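Why this split exists: single-chain examples teach little about how molecules sit against one another. For that reason, every record in the complexes split bundles all components of an assembly together and asks for one structure covering all of them. Below is a record exactly as it appears in the raw files.
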Amino acid sequence: MQRSVPEGAPTAHGAQESFLQIAPPLGAEDYTITLAGNPNTGKSTVFNALTGLKQHTGNWAGKTVARAEGTLRHGGKRFRLVDLPGTYSLLSTSVDEEIARDFILFGQPDCTVVVVDATVLERNLNLVLQVLEITDRAVVCVNLMDEARAKGIEVDVDALADALGVPAVATSALHGEGLPELMDAVLGVASGEVRPHPKRIESAEPVAAGIDDLTSHVAQAFPKLSCPRWVAMRLLDGDPKMREAVATGQLALLGDSPAAVPVEAPPQSIEAGRTVIECASEVQRSFPPEYRDHIVESIYAHVERIVAACVRYTASRRQRYGDLLDRIITSPVFGLPIMGVALAVVFWVTIAGANVPSQMIATALFAAGDWGSQWFASMGSPAWLTGFIWDGAYKALAWVVAVMLPPMAIFFPLFTLLEDFGILPRIAFNLDKAFQKVGAHGKQALTMCMGFGCNAAGVTACRVIDSPRERLIAILTNNFVPCNGRFPTLIMLATIFVAASFPPVLASVAAAGTVMLVVVLGIGMTLLVSWALSRTVLKGEASHFTLELPSYRRPKILQTLYTSLIDRTLFVLYRAVVMAIPAGMVIWLLGAIAVGGESLTAIVSRALDPFGNALGLDGVIILAYIVAIPANEIIVPTMLMAYLGASTMLELDSLDELRAVLIDGHGWTLLTAICLMLFSLLHNPCSTTIWTIWKETRSAKWTTVGALLPLAIAIAVTFGVATIARVF
Amino acid sequence: MALFRSRRRQERVRRVLVEDTLKHVLSGMDQDRLATAKSLAGHLQTSHQEALELVADMEQHRLLSVSSAGLRLTEEGEEWALRIVRAHRLWERYLADEIGKPATALHREADRAEHRLSPDGVESLDAFLGYPREDPHGDPIPAAPGDRMQHDSTSLSEWEAGVPARVVHVEDEPASTFLELTRAGVRPGMTIEVRESGSADITLNDGSNDIVVSRAAASRVGVEAVRRHADDMPLSHLRLGEKGRVTRLDEQCRGMSRRRLLDLGIVPGTIVECALSSMFSDPCAYRVRGSMIALRRDQSERIRVVRESRSI
């Protein structure tokens, strides 16, 4: 993460690698194509439509920015497709923009496809014109044509191609329209058959002469360079990476095919480079302040002329409905209640819908487990081995899958649908003020919502927050909203202890109400801890906050459900294998190993009793939580195993039985239930989440904080509540 | 090893002392009140004897000269001193604009960073920031020997009421008044008008809000005359459904925030419409070039617009 104060002058993000290493040489493919574009243009849809399943995702070297790469065949040739991060521009210092412009310049793709949103053409052309400063080999993909038609926006794509000087193709990637034509155009440009001649923009007066002067210096110093003007503009913008590439002469190596081994720049290039830098400093000093303002202004002046020639507007109903929906959702009066109700509905659907599938999967998996157990026994396997594998490892695995899979398979597709529809930015919009007041970012509202499904997913989602400080706050507090894995515990407690005090008619409402209460408490805790962090260890100014509210779009329901389902299933299974199996083994060992006639479980839980009691709990609960660090789903079964002195985890079929065991058998009271609910809400994240925090922050310090801070808070709160309750 | 490390550390400490001395002497030269060994001792918080030794050492190294009037820097000394001051002010600019550090944290950190930047590093930083003319306090960033280190300006406590002024300097000593001014939102670059000048307080208006500062704090603020921009108002004043035409982005809108607004198409001449307002009117969403962009109030306040008549 960001160090408190960078040591030297700001250098480019990332290590001092050779700039030409950004694109490894082609393997079996003929051409490298790259996709650039604003956020929210449907770029990923284009990417997915072109590459299908033949893609893989990773990260850009040394950065936590996702990188997707895929392959496709068209016209008898093989293409490698690299998806760049969505960016509004290529001029700034954000990591995304640096990656994008570096790849287009140093990666030297055979064709750059810029995906633009036909409904917001003006702003999108800003990026297009910047790309055309770097490379001639570009194709503009005018996407979301169906949306444009629905909103009464007519785009004359041919006129656009004329005005820009590069091929332009109309597409509607969601419906698969226009993609073959797009690949035809790409093939033409990549193969060299079609040579686009982009029309360059002139800069405004105060800076034009200086840019031209420096451009000729750059062209002289680096004759093989195809875009001296872009380099000049970057130098005048003070771009540290470009300064370095020029000063070290490495820019001279562009134009040769990417080398596998870093090559030394020829000495005369280094000399020439230094001269260029001096010239750049001189010109830059002579400029009026705010050089970038002039550049962007001239780009937009040019854009306005192009759009006037190519776009026509007619009134539309779609726009009005969208506006009306916006007015309602963001209304000061209705906004919060609507969001609260929506959240409650999502919870209810998840919980109710997951019930039956969970039972079915559990029954099936446990039956398989029994069968496996018998099989082992019949093969003469020693009892301890059978128990270890089938009652320990396998049982935990089965439990996690049965409990986690159905809710996740419902929650995340729902969430993705909301995302595709366009609701999420509105939620961030509504809640931003609250987060602003505690020193955090409005998008934290979204990562918090993700956390309801799975805290690990919530932590990864924090990438949408640019500022490192605010991202860290969002990561560290994600734990305070209960994830799908903690719901069973909360629901059980709510049903047994709270609903029982109500007449049966109101029982389920009371239970649901209690769970909602805990959720609200979790949200409050998130805000409180964010506030505390931003006052103490993560002090700083609020970063800039600009949020685009894209138009509402009809999501492709079936497609989304399908991909989301696959994603989540794989994740749950992976986690079950890696985390739950070891936990299961430990649990079994605790139950099986006996010392002095008592199982380890009994011994350890007795030892933990004093500590547990201080928190309003007992030793068994504490033991269960320690063992269940990998996966919160197995807390209840582990507790029951310990209470009943069983040798394996188990579940009870009826709530009455459960009540009997807990209240009558082991002295649970309302206080126990409350403290347990609080502890469940606040305690440390599961090991998957901790590992995800490590991956995202790469900082041992913050990962430790992320793991221990919630635990400390949980202990403090439960201790406080227990003590106060006992006084009365 | 330990010996070597402590040697290096000693050298570093020595260099910091030398550089702080250079700065002190340069400041004296700029203010026409030359430094002496005594004033140096106070500034560095050392004994008079140690200050004398340091001065003698530096004189030997031809960094400064001693006269009856006081200490002056040689050409070499002045060059070095200027580089330190430049590094300090550039670093403050960097912390304020790019990192977003609060105004009260800048000086301390820059005091440490100024000794660590190499000449190349300073040059690179200057280019990166776009060769800014001033640091966040309003002090000019010197580029060459002879450049001024302070602005000539009038104190706000002596400024006439009703005459628009531009804040050019906010003194960061003493810390209490600086804190008060920062909290009140008084920053270099802003245009203000004095509404009322009382014996204990002064009331200012920054174009949208009234600000009250104590006389003591006002005396630490330097202002100069400015032509008032006609008619334009902050975007945040646009009501729901109203349209405005952007005239400029405030000087105080800097760094990533300014760049992002430009990228989104908010440049002079653009038409924006206030489309949505959330609870507490913050943030608001504006229609810009066909897209809907939500901005917080502290940003929309820094975009100046002129109201456009409503279209039918």
